[in-house]
Amino acid sequence: MSTSSQPLSRRSFGRLAAGAAGAIGMGASGACAPQGTRPSARSPLRIMAINHVWSQAIKRRTKEFEERIGRRVSMTLLTSDQLSSSYNVKLNASGTDVDVMMVRALQEQLVFAHNDWLTDLTDLVEGDKEFAWADFQKAPRDASLAAGKILSVPVVTERPTLYYRKDLVEGLGGPPRTLDALMSAALELTEKKKGFYGYVGRGQRSGAVSQWSSFLYSHGGDFLVDGKSAIGSRQALAAYDYYGKLLGTAGPPGATNMSLEQAMPIFAQGKAAFYIDADAIYSNFLDPKIATPAVRESVGFAPFPAGPAGAKPHNIPSWSLGINKFSLLRDDAWEFIRWAAGPKMSAALQSDGIPGARRSVWSDRRTLAAFPPDLAEAMRLNAERGLGYDRPRVLQVGRARDIVGRPLVAAILGESVRPVVRDADAEFAEFLVRDNRHKES
Amino acid sequence: MAATEVSAPQAGTRSSTPRPGARRTRTPRTFEQANRRLKWAMLAPALLFVGLMIVFPLAFTLDLSLTDAFGAVNADKRHIGLRNFTDALGDTRRFWPAARRTLVFTVGAVILETVLGLALAMLMRKPFRGMRLVRTVLIIPLLATPVAIGILWLLILDPTNGIANHLLEGLGLPRQEFLGSVSQSLPMLMLIDVWQWTPMMTLLLLAGLSTLPEEPEEAALVDGANAWQRFRYVVLPMLGPTLATALVLRAVDALKTFDILYATKGAGGGSDFEVETLNVYAYGLTFDYQEYGLAAAVLVLFTLFIIGVVVVLRRRGGGKNA
């Protein structure tokens, strides 16, 4: 059936086709931002960051920076998973719509370096006396390097702190100083029928690995020894057993589904006696919007308890700032890092209770005054004793965490850990071969 | 228009080329010829869109699946033949358990949705008071996004603070871990899927039932068939094509489920990979492990798996009509 009453000549058809192609072409060219040209003064400096107390504090202060550079700042705050996925999508497409990137030096920095997604900051960082690179703690500085190049600047550091209820441990002679004492106190205080638990912590396969690392080190173990898997060692097995028993017996139901987001509210609501997690989140337990009055009034902070090998917590740079290799505003991005991670801002933020990475702020009594005294002391001791990593130092950290965390789940579920550890150890060894192959490629 | 005016084709020339000098025969076109060109002009944007959005990604994924791409999609990579496919098919730790979970989730959820959907459609077949209200209520779960639904159920089923455990306690039943449990997570997610998608099955089957002729059923009633016999031997065979279509649509959708699994259990499909389906596994390979070659191979295998399921369902469910 005909739909047209007008015959269409070859010339008309050609015009129509050319018009359509032109329209599509114009549309496509309009949609694509010009590559390699400097954006106009109205284009904002785009910062992608984790939704963290540090980034919230910086966001509140950006007006000062905007006036300094004469450019608007656009800051996007996401969860760590969302942030990671966004980077993968944007940078795989060589996206120019992110300038400053908040990255986890211990999680994705190596793979980003492998992909050549981060700008080499070595000359900028080392050539700027005012920035004082030597003022940063050694562990965070070391974690910022990849193949000898400085790829990020640390802004937040973390150590595991023992959060406890002072009112509950009064009869036990104060907070536990050893892992054995923690276990017995947690078991003693657990009353599952009343919905009260002796201990709460992360139990998710991957999410728990970073917290479990301190238990592993304190049992004398490590993830890798001489580049080979060490999760099958006697010490690692003991650490798996310990953590599984602690969380499985004294912990709340559904512990294997718990990461920071699930575990923290249980302690904040006064349903647990002990909780070990990052010290950077302590303000949640003093916040009336999150914690119950019982917790706010009685929360105490203690250093990580000693295991058979002593107290060996981690002391890590949890978040750092880098510059997207494809950014068209690299100069402004570096100005932002100078401002946000500079000595002045680090001191200001630490005075607000956000633990930084500079030695100068840690030795300044005024900045430490922001923290409750027992927390400041716990942080100081943990930093002194700490190791600079809390997960395997490999290229594919996500995969490594999935393998290392598997026996943890079995232990929490009360299953026999030994065969799972054996299998995970073999899988980790296979993984390391593959990871090394990727590193060399 | 006189067809005789068009000259006969000559050897060595295109059949549509008019003879020199025959001016009247050069410009006229049949409506069909004009329409054919106009049709292609109109179709061009759609074809371009399909090419860019479907054919290119599929071809790119297929090519990627034959490489050792890692870290970045556009990084240097080598073609390694079918090694990713053999690696995936030989992986008994993650790939095959994920394939099994995909199948269990799909079969379990779709069977429940079909049975419940059919039952509800039969109940709602005859008009009753408040029917519009019931239909409106039925549609509500379909309107919400799966991520919102996941978060809603996560709050309801929270083992420590969720309302579900308070209700169980009120009834004197023991508390449950629900989505916090390794063993209960997949069944719970299947039930959430059933809660969300049964209404769609009901509406589809209700539409099918409303088109069925009433005479065969009346004849069966006159012959003395009871309600079950009328349903089993008269209604169900007539509803076959609609049922098959609904089943294929829902099964394909259930096979691809991702958002609700991610919203409730996060990346990685839970602590013991308890809800890691092929979709979740491929996502993890891509975004957590940056193993683009292997992820592409898993997705190609998954696509073949979906095509296989559709073919089987269409054959079993009277595919010619579906």
List the chains of the largest interface with their residue counts.
Answer: A-B, 55 and 49 residues
Based on the coordinates given, report the CATH architecture of the largest domain in chain A.
3-Layer(aba) Sandwich
Low-confidence stretches of chain B: 1-16
**Strands across the major sheet of chain A, in which order?**
2-1-3-13-6
Measured on Cα atoms, how large is the radius of gyration of chain A?
A: 26 Å
The CA-CA distance between the termini of chain B, in Å, is 43 Å
Q: What's the CATH topology name of the largest domain in chain A?
A: D-Maltodextrin-Binding Protein, domain 2
What is the 3D form of chain B? Answer: globular
Number of helices of chain B: 12
Uncertain parts of chain A: 1-8, 23-35
- CATH hierarchy class name of the largest domain in chain A: Alpha Beta
Radius of gyration of chain B: 28 Å
Number of helices of chain A: 19
Give descriptors for this structure.
heterodimer, A: 441 residues, D-Maltodextrin-Binding Protein, domain 2, 2 domains, 5-stranded mixed β-sheet, 47% helix, disordered N terminus, B: mainly alpha, globular
What does this entry look like structurally?
- The complex is a heterodimer of chains A (441) and B (322).
- Chain A contains 19 helices and 13 strands.
- In chain A, strand 1 (45-50), helix 2 and strand 2 form a beta-alpha-beta unit.
- Chain A starts with 9 loop residues before the first helix and ends with a helix.
- Chain A is of the alpha/beta class and 441 residues long.
- Chain A has helices at residues 10-31, 53-69, 80-92, 109-115, 122-126, 138-143, 166-169, 179-189, 209-218, 234-250, 260-268, 293-298, 330-340, 343-351, 359-362, 365-368, 373-385, 397-412, 417-440, and strands at 45-50, 73-78, 100-103, 145-146, 149-150, 153-158, 160-165, 197-200, 224-225, 228-229, 272-278, 299-302, 316-323.
- By secondary structure, chain B is mainly alpha-helical.
- Chain B has twelve helices and no strands.
- Chain B starts with 30 loop residues before the first helix and ends in a 6-residue tail after the last helix.
- Residues 1-16 of chain B have low confidence and may be disordered.
- At the A-B interface, helix 1, helix 3, helix 4 and helix 18 of A face helix 1 and helix 11 of B.
